[in-house]
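Feature request disguised as a bug: please show the residue count (469) next to glucan endo-1,3-beta-D-glucosidase in the output. Example input:
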Amino acid sequence: MMATLSHLSLLFLLSFFTTAFNFAESQSFIGVNYGQVADNLPPPAATASLLKSTAIGKVRLYGADAAIIKALANTGIGIVVGAGNGDIPNLASDPNAATQWVNSNVLPYYPASNITLITVGNEVMTSMDQGLISQLLPAMRNVQNALNSVSLGGKVKVSTVHSMAVLTQSDPPSSGLFNPVFQDALKGLLQFQKDNGSPFAINPYPFFAYQSDSRPETLAFCLFQPNAGRVDSGNGIKYLNMFDAQVDAVRSALNSMGFKDVEIMVAETGWPYSGDSNEVGPSVENARAYNGNLIAHLRSLVGTPLMPGKSVDTYIFALYDEDLKPGPASERAFGLYKPDLTMTYDVGLSKTSQAQTPSTPSTTPSTSPSTPLPKPTATGWCVPKNGVSDALLQANLDYACSHGIDCGPIQPGGACFDPNTVSSHASYAMNLYYQTMGKNPWNCDFSQTAVLTSTNPSHNPCIYPGGST
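Example output, currently without the count:
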């Protein structure tokens, strides 16, 4: 009745033990988008120094800015460079143009600058420009051939980036299907990517999903917060966050076309911290919760239900605000950092500090970033607050036990099974989640149903891991 999940595999447990250490090194699966539609960005060298102080392992550029590429030399940070949609016709029609592009934008900097991927075009398929769509694959082939000719084939990959709108069906995730309008073009692209080992790059945004369904339970689902979950009617899998559901919908769509071995890369995802008064969802609290919980999810190495045991390479949008972007105010409020290199809000990316991430959902826009709150001094154990309902505690229990912790001790016969109550089992699981995920204050939030305490809740024979630090 209480803890219904069994011991996780040794692989999951070993991956989670790594989170007991602080994240002092860059992590290859955590990337950031570095857009430049702005007139107030710091110098490239300052940005390179900032990135080296974080756990960000990769940067995606929308072009191939020489100053930025040079500034990232010898940092080890992976770099994605882009050929714009406007470059596609020339790259497609003239192999020499592709050779010149590689000779200008890759060869002078590689390998000191760790260029790993070239994206040819951005969301071309859903532009509905048939001429551009038909030229996309020839352009990618010519760029690949240019790389091959200078012995960089396999070292620098070639891909393109898609909007989630390439899917005509995504709910439930097991029914994921590409729009038939795009399927012929996608078959050619995917065969090219399979042959050359490049990732299928997609832009999932739970933020936009929430805007179209602004119920409180949807917000919790989108922000990786404890929630009742959503069961996939096709395979019975319970999803506890929108990110996994969206990525697995893409996995299902790829599988249905016979491309099970093409890997997925999340080229963009993020949440704005501010927006117009009529926009639903932008706020500092929600942005901190989404990005902070996403980073914790990636660090857990749990993966998604259809791709367990590893984290999809994910590029968070964005490094800085882009103050010249058109559209609603939220379009100009995705930056993790300000132009003066200070954090907009803390999601735990700094190598020298822990994150402070209260993740209370908010449905109203916030007009300005907040400063990080002081860290609590009691960091021993995470327990439920008094008066929290069994229904909420059960949701917390299910959430914690499905995120890579060993809930065996609260199974029948386990050291912490008695007392056999939702409250007792949830208390153990919530604390173990907090300890395993890095002991940051935001790991003991559970939508404000948990509290940190310096009083050891252990009781014979049940030992709660943790203690004051």
